[in-house]
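Reviewers of the previous submission asked for a worked example of the structure-prediction workflow described in the proposal, so we include one complete record here. The input consisted solely of the amino acid sequence. No template or homolog information was supplied to the procedure at any stage.
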Amino acid sequence: MQVNPQLESARIELAFDDDAELREFVAAAKAQGAFLLELTELPTPLASYTIALRLESGFETELAATVVQLFEAPGGGSAAFQIEALSRGWALEFERRLRQAREPAKDHSEMTGVPPIVRIRQMNVRERMHLATKADRTERATLLRDGSPQVLMGLLTNPRVGADDIVQIIRNPQASPGVLDRVSKENRWMANSEIQKALVRNPKTPAPIAIRLVDSLPTEELRKLAKIQSGLRENLRKAALRVYLKRNRR
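From that input alone, the workflow returned the following structure tokens.
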């Protein structure tokens, strides 16, 4: 995929090599409501952009997306976009125009037989971030320990990621506040008590999110948090104690 930013006109063009690559991008973006792009020039935070999806065959379609987080790096960086809900009409038209597209090629790791941990260590951040969006269980075992917030954000857009993976992402020391905020916005993940506890205990979780989650924690977890004297923000410890005492008075 080639990225052509036209930031002055609030437009970013994505040129895909083939139908399979385009289908994969749209499926992941639609499933997670977000995607990552590596850019030489970073867009404006919280601004809306038109994302044009193109093929050499002449196919082109557009979707609207908002910048939700930036990752600065020498010579540019990466941006996380949250897309607007895709209408049924858009999805039907997209499928109609691509219904003859070939099936995606066999996964590279399956063809080569190279151990994932060896192959992944040879990748740069951009390659690992792209792999994260579609990694299988074996590949995720390595990527979940990655030191790049961009790679962790890419994992969040992977439809194969489960609750156990999310807990590992939250506990990764490199998980940025943006990554943790993204986790907190997914209802399917926030119904899991282990994910809630991991978010509250992570010092990088934005305070408003962590404090809001305290009310949802099991009573035993509240008791543990209330006793912690170090390693936990004082406002969270007091909030846990307050909720714990309130429950015990009932």
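The first helix runs from residue 19 to 32. We consider this example representative of the routine output the project will generate in years two and three.
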